Structures are given as C-alpha cells and as structure tokens.
C-alpha cells in the first residue's frame, strides 16, 4: 500500500498577527468599546492558535507516515491532539466573530467586517466544526459514564479512501485527506481554506484604523 498525504500547507500568517498585539499595546485598541476590543482580541488570538495547531498536526502526521523502520505512534497521537485543539480554537473563534458582527453597539469595526460574510461564518460550516468539536469535548463525559460501546470510535483520526493503484497490480493508494470521528468528517482542504479565510479577517481587524474610520464618519 502506498500512502498519499494530502494536507494543504497554509503559508499565510506564519508569525501570527504580531502587528495587532503591537497596536493594542502601543498605538491604541481597534475600538473605544471594551467589549469590542475583547471580542476582537480573542478572535485574533484563537485564529493564531488554530493556525499553529493545524501546522503542528500536519507536521506530526507526516512524521508518522514518513518511511522509517520505527512506527512512530507518538507522532500519530500528537497529531490527533493538535488537530483537536485546532478544531476547538476554530469553533471558539467563529463564535467570537459572529458575536462581533452582531454586536448591538454598531461599532465601526463591526460595520467594517459586516461588509462581507465569510464562508467559515455560515451556518453550514460553523455547524460542521461545532458538531465534531462537541463530540470531542463531551467524549470524556461519555467515557466516565461507561457509554462507549465496543466498536465505537473513541478518538479523532486522520483517514481517507483507499483505491487501486493505477499502474501496479495488487497495490493500493491510501489517501490521507480528512479528519474522521464516527459519522463526522472534515476534509483537510476545507480546513485549510477556512483557516486561511479566518486569517484574512484577523488581518482585516489588525489593519483596521478606528481613528481614521471615525474621521470618515
């Protein structure tokens, strides 16, 4: 069996959003409304964390499947933990983003990010991430109650289809291209797209100039 790892890299925002934190400390916050600042800062922080965890998860996954005489189970387990954290941070970030968009203050930053609705904030995408995150989050409770039955999945895993090799008889290609937990699946290609989009909105928040916006109004 051949293994094909299809986990897209996310080259954008390799150092997070240092400019946001620098502006927050030295140049003033993105809003005079403390709730808005809290929501915006939490969103940016969680997106930073999600990007880091995605990259670490991908790195450990590749390390596990790299040709080696030693089976690196620890790399596989670490990959799972990183992707679990990634999904949790994404779900929390989406909640912050939606709360920011819908904030009753009608703050200039809220109006600015409301000009477009990204795919990660749609009900369909938010539900996919929330559902799998909830299964992960509540698993320990079910485990302690003894609700896990034989054959039921008890951890997130990286998986994908196995298809016949096109040129080598009796050989297959296993494509690792998604996260799976029971009936829930998330493609790595989708995760990378949503994370990149989340990063672009964190960048938008970073570049937002509250004073300039106020002067325009």
Features:
three-stranded antiparallel β-sheet; 6 strands; 217 residues; three-stranded mixed β-sheet; single chain; mainly alpha
Written overview of the protein:
The chain has 217 residues and is mainly alpha-helical. It has one domain (13-153, 186-216). It is built from seven helices and six strands. It has a three-stranded mixed beta sheet with strand order 1-4-3, with helices on one face. Strands 2-5-6 form a three-stranded antiparallel beta sheet. A hairpin with a 7-residue loop joins strand 3 (162-164) and strand 4. Helix 2 runs antiparallel to helix 3 (73-101) and helix 3 packs across helix 5. The longest helix is centred in the first third of the chain and has 32 residues, at 34-65. The termini are far apart. The mean pLDDT is 89.
Q: What's the layout of helices and strands?
A:
Elements: E1 2-5, H1 18-27, H2 34-65, H3 73-101, H4 108-113, H5 123-145, E2 157-159, E3 162-164, E4 172-176, E5 178-181, E6 184-187, H6 188-207, H7 210-216
Parallel strand pairs: 1-4
Antiparallel strand pairs: 2-5, 3-4, 5-6
Helix pairs in contact: 1-6, 2-3, 2-6, 3-5
Distance between the termini: 63 Å
Structural class: mainly alpha
Silhouette = elongated
Overall strand count: 6
User: In percent, how much strand structure appears in the residues?
Assistant: 5-15%
Helix content: 55-70%
Number of domains: 1
């Amino acid at each position: 069996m051949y293994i094909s790892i299809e986990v897209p890299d996310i080259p954008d925002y390799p150092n997070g959003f240092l400019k946001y934190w620098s502006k927050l400390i030295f140049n003033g916050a993105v809003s005079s409304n403390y709730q808005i600042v809290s929501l915006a800062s939490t969103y940016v922080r969680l997106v930073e964390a999600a990007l880091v965890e995605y990259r670490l998860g991908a790195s450990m996954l590749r390390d596990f499947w790299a040709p080696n005489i030693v089976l690196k189970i620890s790399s596989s387990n670490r990959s799972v933990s990183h992707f679990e954290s990634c999904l949790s941070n994404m779900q929390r970030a989406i909640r912050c983003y939606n709360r920011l968009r819908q904030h009753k203050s009608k703050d200039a930053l809220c109006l600015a990010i409301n000009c477009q609705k990204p795919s990660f904030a749609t009900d369909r995408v938010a539900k996919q991430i929330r559902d799998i995150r909830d299964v992960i989050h509540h698993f320990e409770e079910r485990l302690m109650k003894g609700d896990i039955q034989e054959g039921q999945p008890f951890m997130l895993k990286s998986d994908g289809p196995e298809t016949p090799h096109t040129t080598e008889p009796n050989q297959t290609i296993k494509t690792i291209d998604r996260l799976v937990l029971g009936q829930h699946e998330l493609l790595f290609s989708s995760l990378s797209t949503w994370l990149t989009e989340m990063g672009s909105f964190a960048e938008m928040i970073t570049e937002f100039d509250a004073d300039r916006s106020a002067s325009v109004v």
